[in-house]
Design goal:
Elements lengths: L2 H6 E3 L6 E3 L16 E3 L6 E3 L24 E2 L5 E7 L3 H7 L1 E3 L3 E7 L2 E7 L2 E3 L5 H10 L6 E7 L3 E12 L5 E12 L2 H8 L5 E3 H20 L4 H7 L3 H18 L2 E13 H17 L3 H9 L3 H11 L4 H28 L1 H54 L1 H13 L3 H8 L4 H9 L3 H5 L23 H6 L2 E7 L6 E10 L2 E4 L1 H12 L3 E6 L7 E8 L5 H5 L13 E5 L23 E6 L18 E11 L13 E4 L11 E3 L5 E7 L2 E5 L15 E5 L5 E5 L8
Parallel strand pairs: 5-7
Antiparallel strand pairs: 1-2, 3-4, 6-11, 6-14, 7-10, 8-9, 8-11, 12-13, 13-15, 16-17, 16-19, 17-18, 18-21, 19-20, 20-21, 22-23, 22-25, 23-24, 24-29, 25-26, 26-29, 27-28
Length: about 725
């Protein structure tokens, strides 16, 4: 055969035909080349990488654990530091080639001894020497253990939260939030020390191991310092870096890790908050904003006052942020004052003290995030409101300028029309107009150009009621349904927008949707309200670890199927999006916490609970009943992905966003407890018992389930 042809082609292992090395599959039998092969973890056979089932044993490849060598891919989850992957058929894997995920390095171990060099991110076509190849083929029938260990190839960050107060020499305490930047230095120590008796190590695992050392380092660093010195050093990252490095460098080296740097640190204490408040107040005084702050501090309705500030003061966003930050700090001061009072009778009020400390420690991170989101929402609403009011003023001015001036004067003075007539001695409306134009010109001159609270005899076109926060969130939720065109043929469940072009629902809902797509139908998303037309869903992606077989089994005898998440891609733009709670804040969820969801339960509800042409989601509230893993085991916060709650659910609720009391998405409604009973419909009277169909009825125990939202990260 032509030598050149041999160089640019390869032999198909199925039919012996030669085809181009750049081709994905044989052009005669369709068999995949080595770069398009994957490996069945059940029998070890090589199959096409795009196959859903093994060609040899017919095992379901989709349901196989993606953290093993599925398709010759060595990968980590986003928060994994090190993962051990046992190789049952190493010869098959290494002869076909290995795909190492970007940002990852892979190492091969035989009986604990490293073999060869590291495999960097990308596709590695294995061509080991003959002796190694012989050993690998002998391993197939022997007792040797072959495994891969994969670690990050780049620096990675580990957050450490020191919520337990660090005592100071002069009394009081501080808390700290630290982010460390580390790297892998010795793969042998990583395998022997970090991966001892476990197959993976996450950033949460390492945080728990480093927490006492970081706490001790900070205690040694600031324990004997004066408050003034701590205030001076609170921004000096290099100062804290030296003490933490000295405490951790040997601890990390023993585990095969290198301490790179202190990436970030936040130190906060009661006395520091007071100092920050003083500095902010002085800056506001210099800028002439003390009066506005005092108004904010005295305001009963904070939302109303914020809007009033936007409309009447012309303050910049930065100035408003400083005013509200000072207000927040002084509000915390009131909580601390209450705490000091309670400490005087600690024996009687110990539970109250504990509650205050929990709210103080756990609430700070939330306040920063929630305050930023509320300011952004407020700015957008105020901007829209300002435009509406200006349009309304222009409209009313053209129709009846005098009437507008009367209402403005009435609103500003705080008096009703009859009171003004009686006080001025005027009897007619015309007299009042004249009075407004002449005698009260000084009063009219004081009226700000834009106000929220003036009234009209008839509401001009364009002036609408400001939507509530719940209504704004409602616009991001909708019904997912199937149809030939935009007309609904079959409802599938609830979905909601996580970005302008992505929606989130359950994996089991997406599986139904894909079934309709295979039958020639299209999938549509109809957001709440009649204004937004249905948007076609261009495609869907299911969480790679969702277990379809477990979902279809009898849930009463098994664990809850985990990772019940899917993402849909919109062929259009969503009208609104929901915000997901992220990071360590999800670990602060607690039993008894109030939660809610917006969704479209339809099973057994008249009219299916909503109108598809103009859907309005139902708002349900309740409490968290338990936080466990998917096998209902009592685990730590880092693994408590199953949220048991008492919110009423029914068919159609699947995919609904589960929210905290601030409207942040903390999970997705995934399952409910149902009982199957025989139908009581009269049309089945006289039928044999086994011929009467069953109906699903929700359990009176109200034990229903949602899954924590950080499982969605792998799909975004």
């Amino acid at each position: 055969m032509n030598i050149f042809k041999r160089l640019v082609t390869e032999k198909c292992p199925n039919c012996d035909n030669r085809f181009s090395k750049d081709a994905g599959y044989c052009n005669v039998c369709g068999y995949g080349n080595q770069k398009a092969w994957t490996q069945c973890q059940k029998c070890g056979s090589s199959v096409g990488a795009e196959s859903n089932f093994c060609w040899n044993c017919h095992a379901d490849l989709v349901s196989q654990d993606t953290q093993k060598t599925s398709g010759g891919v060595w990968r980590r989850e986003f928060d994994d530091i090190a993962v051990r992957i046992p190789l049952q058929f190493p010869g098959e894997v290494l002869n076909q080639g290995v795909q190492v995920e970007q940002g990852t390095e892979g190492y091969l171990f035989i009986n604990g001894v490293p073999e060869g060099g590291k495999l960097r991110g990308g596709y590695t076509e294995q061509r080991p020497d003959r002796s190694l190849l012989d050993r690998l083929f002998q391993i197939e029938g022997g007792d040797d253990r072959v495994e891969a260990v994969i670690v990050p190839s780049e620096n990675f960050n580990v957050p450490v939260q020191v919520f337990r107060g660090i005592s100071l020499r002069e009394g009081g305490e501080i808390q700290a939030s630290v982010e460390l930047t580390l790297s892998v230095e010795d793969i042998l120590k990583v395998r022997s020390q970090l991966l001892i008796s476990r197959d993976s190590v996450t950033t949460a695992d390492l945080e728990n191991e480093l927490l006492p050392h970081v706490s001790n380092a900070l205690g040694n660093c600031v324990g004997n310092m004066s408050r003034e010195s701590i205030l001076e050093k609170r921004y000096d990252r290099a100062f804290f870096d030296g003490h933490i490095r000295q405490s951790l460098v040997n601890q990390l080296a023993d585990k095969g890790l290198r301490y790179e740097r202190l990436n970030d640190i936040s130190v906060l204490g009661d006395f520091m908050e007071e100092e920050i408040a003083k500095e902010t107040r002085e800056r506001l005084r210099r800028e002439g904003l003390e009066e506005q702050f005092q108004q904010l501090n005295d305001a009963q309705d904070l939302e109303q006052f914020r809007a009033k500030l936007h409309h009447e003061t012309r303050l910049s966003d930065k100035q408003l942020q400083e005013i509200e930050m000072l207000f927040s700090l002084e509000s915390k001061g009131k909580i601390r004052s209450k705490e000091r009072e309670l400490e005087l009778g600690e024996a009687v009020h110990s539970e109250d003290i504990k509650d205050i400390k929990i709210r103080r420690n756990l609430g700070r991170a939330r306040e920063v995030s929630e305050f930023t989101d509320e300011r952004m929402e407020e700015a957008l609403r105020v901007k829209a409101k300002k435009g509406e009011i200006e349009n309304a003023l222009n409209h009313q001015s053209e129709m009846n300028q005098a009437n507008v001036r009367i209402h403005l004067a009435t609103s500003f003075s705080g008096l009703d029309r009859d009171a003004i007539l009686a006080a001025s001695g005027k009897e007619t409306r015309a007299d009042l107009i004249k009075l407004t134009e002449t005698e009260n010109e000084a009063l009219a001159a004081q009226i700000p150009p834009i106000r929220k609270d003036f009234t009209f005899s008839g509401e001009p076109e364009g002036l609408k009621r400001e939507p509530t926060k719940l209504e704004l969130r409602r616009e991001a939720v909708g019904i997912l349904y199937a149809g030939v065109n935009a007309d609904c043929l079959e409802r599938l469940g609830t979905a909601w927008a996580v970005s302008h072009d992505k929606i989130v629902t359950n994996a089991h809902v997406a599986l139904h949707a894909m079934g309709y797509i295979e039958n020639g139908l299209r999938i549509w998303m109809k957001f709440a309200g009649a204004e937004v037309p249905p948007i076609q869903v261009a495609g869907m992606k299911i969480h790679p670890e969702f277990d379809e077989h477990l979902y279809k089994s009898d849930i009463g005898e098994h664990a809850i199927p985990g990772c019940d998440f899917a993402v849909g891609y919109l062929d259009g733009r969503s009208p609104s999006q929901l915000r997901c709670l992220t990071g360590g804040l999800l670990r602060t969820l607690r039993v008894g916490q109030s939660v809610s969801y917006l969704g479209f339960p339809s099973e057994g509800i008249p009219g299916q609970g909503s109108n598809t042409a103009s859907p309005h989601p139902l708002y349900k509230t309740g409490y968290i009943s338990a936080l466990t893993d998917f096998s209902f085991a009592d685990v730590g916060p880092s693994q408590a992905f199953l949220i048991t709650h008492d919110l009423g659910v029914a068919g159609g609720s699947s995919g609904s966003p589960l929210m905290d009391d601030k409207g942040n998405v903390i999970g997705i409604v995934s399952a409910g407890t149902m009982h199957a009973i025989k139908s009581s419909d009269p049309q089945f009277d006289g039928e044999a018992f086994d011929k009467i169909p069953t109906e699903r009825v929700p359990s009176g125990a109200l034990v229903n389930f949602a899954q924590r939202i950080d499982l969605l990260n792998v799909l975004l």
